[in-house]
Amino acid sequence: MPHPDLDAGLMIETAYAKVNVALHVRARRDDGYHALESLFVFAEHGDRLTAVATDDGAIDLVIDGPFGSGLEAGPDNLVMKAARALQAYLGDQRGAAIRLTKILPVASGIGGGSADAAATLRLLARLWDVRIEAEELAGLALDLGSDVPACVASVTQMVTGRGERLRPHPVEGLDGMAMLLVNPGVGVSTAQVFNGWDRADRGPLDATSLKTLVAQGRNDLEAPAIAAAPVIAQLLGALEGHDGLVLARMSGSGATCFALFDSDAAMADAAMAVQAAHRDWWIMETRIRTA
Ligand code: C5P
Predict the structure, then answer these.
(1) 20, 114, 146, best to mutate for ligand 1 pocket (most atoms within 8 Å of CB)
(2) Can you give the C-alpha Rg of the chain in angstroms?
(3) What reaction(s) does this enzyme catalyze (predicted)?
């Protein structure tokens, strides 16, 4: 469906890519979810959402962009679900025509769907001038997915519980850091990766400094993700050994891995080398978003 031309009523949001600098899985809960301790950061880049208000109550969604063909615009789409959730909360039928430009790979551990849902909540709250308490917004967000509450704020934070307990957690030297995101072109199922976790609690996350995050932080989902998609091991290997590298690790349930560098120039050199050796891998050069 064609969208209205750019006009004064158009609003824009970025669905910032989410990265788990460390993700410690502590226990499997009775409800099937896992108790986590994770330091979330966000990239300066992400998917792009635009919307204009309509007065017929309909939510129209079109999807484009480099990864747009991997997604359906139907009722199961998280953008659509977020819009419906906000409509239900309002109890009225304000409408919107939304365009999602999918820049991030789908099902890739950097929050694509969760970030899109959170950005939709932010975007429509502005578009419809919604007054909603932070706690109520967080409740709507959690219903959409475990990572969605953290994505609403999109700032560096410590996340616990199944994803609903959030604490701003600045780490000296982290915000603004050069960050390379690399995806090997395979999608992995979050539920399958969590199910493959060996249920061994390897201990709490100490995120008091970048140094402890690097030395003692882990992503406990790397092993089950590699079991599902062995190319992730190759990808982690390809990120090692570059000048200026501070940390290379998998994000979320994979398959995207990230690498932090001590300068933009070091990141650019590494990006060039990795892309030259792996033409079909998706690579994004970005930075950790500063609140
Ligand atoms: O909450 P969300 O729908 O994004 O989670 C997708 C799947 O990931 C869940 O169905 C569950 O299998 C797994 N998950 C988990 N523990 C968490 C978050 C997600 O087991 N804390």
Answers:
(1) 146
(2) 19
(3) 4-CDP-2-C-methyl-D-erythritol + ATP = 4-CDP-2-C-methyl-D-erythritol 2-phosphate + ADP + H(+)
